[in-house]
């Protein structure tokens, strides 16, 4: 062997090394399938019929705004594998009976027309796999996008399940996060999948038709039938056109779950619901973990939903701010929330209820009053030596925010034009209508508590990048004497407060008295659009704030 290598020319050696490097970069694809070995449960992930947003090739990351990366499945499978569930992928071979042998669950995620269709033999193999005791987990999507419904429905037909050629529509304010198709589902049947589940949220999905629905739209919901001429987004026309046979109405299911033969089947009508950007919104995570556990027949194990994700856990309370964490409205925080989960060491969980077990708590612009029990939960973070971040805009403080500050920071005050306002001495209406001037210009950040070196921010609305609109970057001209400076901003002789902090019991309260640079109107409304040059530092400030919280965690 050594003499053979010596006879090669340098050019041949270079070519060989290049081929090896290309193979390592994935340009020469190799099969990843191997039979299961050892204890499971074992999950086989079908990457032969689909590569969309899978857990091996895509992951939500800083600086990557590609759609498939934003909604990759890395976090879900990281949690599964951290808790004893093992997986294999099959990329280049069809699903034979032999290749399905030994697996507990077959996972098929949003098939598409760029990959091979299921053969009749494969359809039969999958059906027999379930009949003999396997678990089948299928993810569909709206309006037959990528011909997904047409390809998956022949497998599901004998099971009495069909992914509709519709978009599942429900209405604001009670059942919509944004628009008509980013919906919140509250209507559940009693089932293992729905244990500890209060709400799941789809980002444009399909109704899943059949007699085994366990999660449903409201009575006002309907299925908006697809327009095959619309190839831009594969949508319908966003209205009911009068034919209930074509566009069914009412409490349509978006999840089907049933036993079939000796096995089990779950079909969910949306791909994004469990992607990295949306997995920890509401109870999506709990629902997904229940699904894998039930399909694997592992209900006797400790619940997957109760295991803390690895790394730093940040709780975001949605029960007091009308789901502002996930909304795309101007003053909401959707892009901010997605960015929090771009940090691979952080799980930012937007919770339906205020909990106490996270490493830190973030309260974004509360608008609903905190009762005594909720206030005690906030105080529990201080007793446990943890940090609570309360993020506000001082020129539009809600009564709920003022009352919360009066409870946990009774001497909290802000100063505007040399007038000082204290939460315990000033009525809530005054705070709600506080007339705060704005200072124009981009401000350099300063802090002795955390690293803000090189960062400049303003609250410039994203539309302001167009100079014809005549918008100037601004911050609020406001200061505070409460606690200690956390972040200040300076432009020439102008200095304003961004955030203050104070030790409370064994923990710390950080109050952002202005956070316009964190809101959608500044960061944008899309998780797949990179920030403008003007607003990139606001995103970097998020990451540095997370670094501070991780260091401060007990």
Short description:
By secondary structure, the protein is of the alpha/beta class.
Characteristic terms for this protein:
554 residues; alpha/beta; Rossmann fold; 2 domains; nine-stranded mixed sheet; eight-stranded mixed sheet; disordered N terminus
Tell me about this structure.
With 554 residues, the protein is α/β, with parallel strands linked by helices. It folds into two domains: 30-306, Rossmann fold (3-Layer(aba) Sandwich), CATH 3.40.50; 312-552, Rossmann fold (3-Layer(aba) Sandwich), CATH 3.40.50. The chain contains 14 helices and 28 strands. A nine-stranded mixed beta sheet has the order 17-16-18-19-28-27-26-23-24. The chain has an eight-stranded mixed beta sheet with strand order 2-1-3-4-15-14-12-9, with helices on both faces. The longest helix is centred in the last third of the chain and has 17 residues, at 536-552. Residues 1-28 have low confidence and may be disordered.
Number of strands: 28
User: In terms of per-residue confidence, which ranges show pLDDT below 50 for 5 or more consecutive residues?
Assistant: 1-28
What share of residues are in beta strands?
Answer: 15-25%
Major beta sheet, strand line-up: 17-16-18-19-28-27-26-23-24
Pfam families: DUF4350
Domain DUF4350: 71-290
Protein name: DUF4350 domain-containing protein
Organism: Persicimonas caeni
SSE topology sketch:
Blueprint (H helix, E strand, L loop, with lengths): L1 H6 L2 H15 L17 E5 L20 H4 L3 H9 L3 E5 L6 H4 L4 E5 L10 H12 L3 E5 L8 H9 L4 E3 L2 E4 L6 E3 L3 E4 L1 E2 L11 E4 L4 E3 L2 E4 L5 E4 L27 E8 L2 E6 L15 H12 L16 E6 L16 H7 L5 E6 L8 E5 L7 H12 L3 E5 L7 H10 L4 E4 L2 E4 L5 H5 L5 E3 L2 E4 L9 E2 L16 E3 L7 E8 L2 E11 L2 E6 L7 H4 L12 H17 L2
InterPro entries: Class_I_gatase-like (IPR029062), DUF4350 (IPR025646)
Protein name: DUF4350 domain-containing protein
Organism: Persicimonas caeni
